[in-house]
Write a structure and sequence with these properties.
CATH superfamily: Aldolase class I
Helix content: 25-40%
Strand order of the largest sheet: 4-11-10-9-8-7-6-5
Largest sheet: 8 strands, parallel
Structural class: alpha/beta
Bound molecules: flavin mononucleotide
Mean pLDDT: 96
CATH architecture: Alpha-Beta Barrel
Number of strands: 12
Distance between the termini: 56 Å
Radius of gyration: 20 Å
């Protein structure tokens, strides 16, 4: 049967993938409240479309950190993509580049920065996890620079791994025929089987729990690349990120895989946008599955969005063609949403094009009580 929306790839991936892999991709932390909320919150935002505007031409292009892309829809970093498909991150890189958009490569990719670069031209960001051994970090950042990556997405919500119970039950571990390719030469590419989640043990052993704002400044002493701070969801941290020299913020709750019961990212977005005061761009990821979701995020002030799981599920289902199709479907849905809302370019998308549950009085007048 023909796939007509992004969400349908999840069921196909579930059929195709080993349970351990599918569960690792799909799961959230603990009660998975935030996982559901990341999606549900979008349904609390409704449109206020404008009509009788010439929408015969629609321009979805935008600029991210100075790089022109075809649409404000980008690819979030997600680990270990070769578990989904033999071509893994290489297929994702090709699909992103064909769509004219940005791919973010995970530190924990099963393809190296050099291998991804060798797929051809494309604008790519590198997601960084900070290891206890800072020589490892410095080497990796240098390799990413040399391989032509244009920015570092520094993930700041993972001093420890969130409690993902499916991974504990499944004793999740990277299959032995794969390695975390960026760390292969550093003897950190393998993951040992553990009594719980092998990844949680790996993180506990290698990732630096002491990471703090001063390390964001340290990072700027070892690289000229702009730094996006990924995982901010409060105004307080937005201000600190700007002070620390961040080039942008990604409002993210790590796909609901870290702290459960944080708000949906789309609910946290406006707080961050207001605190950023237009000084640096604010991006969002988490639960974006429709073109309407993209529009809602932009209306609430995001400069662009990233998608995570849809890439993994479509990769599992159809490889590069699947990821291309996901990007194409989102592009078309987003274009249609713009047309039906009366917007012909991204700058025409405003806060007035949506109404949310949290601005009730203005647009959802309650009936007056009968006297
Ligand atoms: C299987 C999986 C692996 C992920 N791996 C990483 C990672 O290595 N680094 C990182 O910063 N975020 C990682 N993320 C989080 C994503 O970058 C992103 O924040 C999240 O997936 C967005 O939500 P969505 O999946 O609902 O689109 C991962 C997410 C998933 C689902």
């Amino acid at each position: 049967m023909e796939v007509t929306n992004v969400m349908e790839y999840e069921a196909i991936a579930k059929q195709k993938l080993p349970k351990m892999v599918f569960d690792y991709y799909a799961s959230g932390a603990e009660d998975q409240w935030t996982l559901a909320e990341n999606r549900n919150a979008f349904s609390r935002i409704l449109f206020r479309p404008r009509i009788l505007i010439d929408v015969s031409r629609i321009d979805m292009t935008t600029t991210v950190l100075g790089f022109k892309i075809s649409m404000p829809i980008m690819i979030a970093p997600s680990a270990m993509q070769k578990m989904a498909h033999p071509e893994g991150e290489l297929a994702t890189a090709r699909a992103a580049s064909a769509a004219g958009t940005i791919m973010t490569l995970s530190s924990w990719a099963t393809s190296s920065v050099e291998e991804v670069a060798s797929t051809g031209p494309g604008i790519r960001f590198f997601q960084l996890y900070v290891y206890k051994d800072r020589n490892v970090v410095a080497q990796l950042v240098r390799r990413a620079e040399r391989a032509g990556f244009k920015a570092i997405a520094l993930t700041v919500d993972t001093p420890r791994l969130g409690r993902r119970e499916a991974d504990i039950k499944n004793r999740f571990v990277l299959p032995p025929y794969l390695t975390l390719k960026n760390f292969e030469g550093l003897n950190l590419g393998k993951m040992d089987q553990a009594n719980d989640s092998g990844l949680a043990s790996y993180v506990a052993g290698q990732i630096d729990r002491t990471l703090s704002w001063k390390d964001v400044q340290w990072l700027q002493t070892i690289t000229k690349l702009p730094i996006l701070v990924k995982g901010v969801i409060t105004a307080e941290d937005t201000r600190l990120a700007i002070q620390a020299g961040a080039a942008g913020i990604i409002v993210s709750n790590h796909g609901a895989r870290q702290l459960d019961y944080v708000p949906a990212t789309i609910m946290a977005l406006e707080e961050v946008v207001k605190a950023a005061q237009g000084r640096i761009p604010v991006f969002l990821d988490g639960g974006v599955r429709r073109g309407t979701d993209v529009f809602k995020a932009l209306a609430l002030g995001a400069a662009g969005i990233f998608i995570g799981r849809p890439v993994l599920f479509s990769l599992a289902a159809e490889g590069e063609a699947g990821v291309r199709k996901v990007l194409q479907m989102l592009r078309e849905e987003f274009e249609l949403t713009m047309a039906l809302s009366g917007c012909t370019s991204l700058k025409e998308i405003t806060r007035d094009h949506v109404t949310t549950d949290w601005d009730l009085p203005r647009t959802h007048p309650r009936p007056l009580p009968r006297l």
